[in-house]
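Session log. Operator J.P. requested a structure for one protein chain; no other inputs attached. Running the standard single-chain path with C-alpha cell output.
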Amino acid sequence: MHYRSHEQPVIMLTTGPVEAYPEVLRRLSRQVLYDHDPAFQALYERVVEKARQAMRLSERPVILQGEPVLGLEAAAASLIEPGDTVLNLVSGVYGKGFGGWARRYSPNLLEIEVPYNEAIDPQDVAKILRQHPEISVVSVCHHDTPSGTLNPVNEIGALVSAHGAYLIVDAVSSFGGMDTHPRACHADLYVTGAAKCLGATPGLTLLGVSDRAWLKMKANRMAPRGSALSIVDWEQAWSPERPFPFTPSIAEINGLEAALDLYLAEGPERVWERHALTARATRAGIRAMGLSLWPACDGIASPTTTAIRVPDGIDEESLRRIARERYGVLFSGGRGATEGKLTRIGHMGPAAQPIFAIAALSAYVGALSSLGHQAALGTGMEAAMAVINGDAE
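Structure written below.
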C-alpha cells in the first residue's frame, strides 16, 4: 500500500508541529466565545494561571497570539535597544537566525558560533563576557531543533546573571519535554510554544518575563506598542478587568488549556521521562544498526529529537518521501545548513511514547533499504527493546 501525498500520514514523528493530543482537538471544537464575554475572560485568566504553574513561575506569563517565531521576534524588538551590545550564541540554524533580529534593533552584535553538531561551551561565554563588559543582552537557543542538540542554558544563564546582562532563551522545542524552566536558567525572556512538547496546535507563544525585563521593555521607547509584536501591551491581559489589545485566538486558547491540563495531570517528571525513554530507545537502535547520530556526543543529544546523519550516497528527501509513502510515517528533514545532511525523528507530545521508537526505526530502515543502503533492522529492534524493557545500561 502507498500513502499518496494528499493523504494523511498514519504516524507523525515530526519536530513540530506535532500531532495534537485527542483531548486538545476535542477542546478546539468548543464554542468560540466573544472575547469580551466574562466567561471567556475567566477562561483566559484560568489558562494563564495553568501556564504559570507549568512553567514554574512566580509571576504570570504572557500568551502572545502567534506561533513562537512571533514571540522570538517580539523578544528582540522589545528588549533590545540601539545602545545594547548583544551576544548571540550560535550552535545551529535557529540560533543563527536570532542574530538577524538582534541586529535589526542594535548594530552591536557579537557571536560565539560552533559547528552545528556541537554545543556552546560555558567557558567560552565566560571569556567573552570578561573581554566585553559592555555586553548587556545575551540570546541562546536551548534546543536547536534542526540539529537535535542542546545548549547548557542553566550554566550559561548563571554566567549571564552574574554579569548583569539580560538573557533571552529560545525554549520552543524543549519546554515540556525535559527539565527546563525560566528561573533555573535565569531567563529574562523565556520563549516557548504550544505545538511541540505540549502537544497542542500551532498559533500561540508562551512567554516568561522577569520583573527587570518588564522594566527594560517599558522604558524602551522603541519597543513595539499597538502591534502584534508588542509584549508590553499584553502584560495585564490575564485580568478580566483589562481589555485585550486585540482579539485572542480563542479556539487555540481552548486547546492550550487541554494541553496544560494533560501536562499537569500526568506530572512534568513523568512527561519528561517518556520523552527521554523514547529518545534513548531510538538512539540505541540507530547505533546498533551501524548508523550515525548527528550530535557530536550523547550529552548534548536532545530527548525531544533524534537527528540521524544521512548515510553517504542517500538522498535525504527521497528517504523521507519513501517513509511516508510506503509506511505512512512522517519525519522531519534538516533546515538551512543541515538540510539534506540529517533526518530528524521527533519525540514530542503524543509521539513521545516508546512504541514510536519501534515504528521510527522500521520506517527509517525500510526507506534506506529501498534506496540501496542495508541496515540490520533486527539488531536495531533488539537494542531499542532492551532500553524500553530496562535491560540496557
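Operator note: The mean pLDDT is 96.
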